[in-house]
Amino acid sequence: MSDEPSVSPQQEVNAKSQTLKKNDDFSKPSYWENNDLNQPIEPRFFQEFIRMLFALGFIIVLIFVAAWIFKRILNQRLKQINITSEIKILERRSLSPKTSVYLLEVMGKGVLIGESPAGIQRLGDIALSPQEKHVSFGDIYKEKQPKQPKIDE
User: Fold this and answer.
1) Are residues 4 and 73 located together in one domain of the fold?
2) Average pLDDT over residues 149-153
3) Are residues 34 and 52 in the same domain?
4) Are residues 8 and 58 in the same domain?
5) Does 67 share its domain with 98?
6) End-to-end distance of the chain based on CA atoms, in angstroms?
């Protein structure tokens, strides 16, 4: 017979599970190993929560700054295109969230167009003199309105 002591299958399973527990990295969270067990965990939670809030705030501010810079770049590009183009957008007015009226200068002539979900419609022509080329939409609108007689009581 053999010189090895006989080991029951149950004892062998228990020995293997004990070895696994000793070598298992997931048996105990790592923050327990280096911390004093008498120290409460809550202060660490609040410190981490505050750090997370600061990081979130930083990211939100970064997004707003990037959007502001992007908007400025696009506006400058639009102005640059507007200067060099034969078609210039002089004024834009929103009538509702989905409808707008544009006053355009097309080769020295004023064109009034409307934009809506149904499409773009030409509303009329407006003659622009060199002095009037950069007059606001409101001024042109007031000029084209029929005069209302004043009623004296």
Assistant:
1) yes
2) 63
3) yes
4) yes
5) no
6) 132
Number of domains in the chain: 2
Amino acid at position 14, single letter: N
- My answer on whether 28 and 54 are in the same domain is yes
In tens, the pLDDT along 28-42 reads 555 555 555 555 556
d(CA 37, CA 32): 7
Give the Cα-Cα-Cα angle 82, 101, 127 (nearest 5 degrees). 70
In terms of domains, do 21 and 90 share one?
no
Structure tokens given for 64: 């707003």
Q: What is the 3-state secondary structure (H, E, C) of the chain?
A: CCCCCCCCHHHHHHHHHHHHHHHCCCCCCHHHHHCCCCCCCHHHHHHHHHHHHHHHHHHHHHHHHHHHHHHHHHHHHHHHHHHHCCEEEEEEEEEECCEEEEEEEECCEEEEEEEECCEEEEEEEEECCCCCCCCCHHHHHHHHCCCCCCCCC
Find the mean pLDDT for residues 7-17: 69
Dump pLDDT digits (tens) for 49-78.
999 999 999 999 999 999 999 999 888 887
Residue 149 domain-assigned (yes or no): no
Quick check: is 152 in a domain?
A: no
Quote the domain boundaries for residue 140. Answer: 86-144
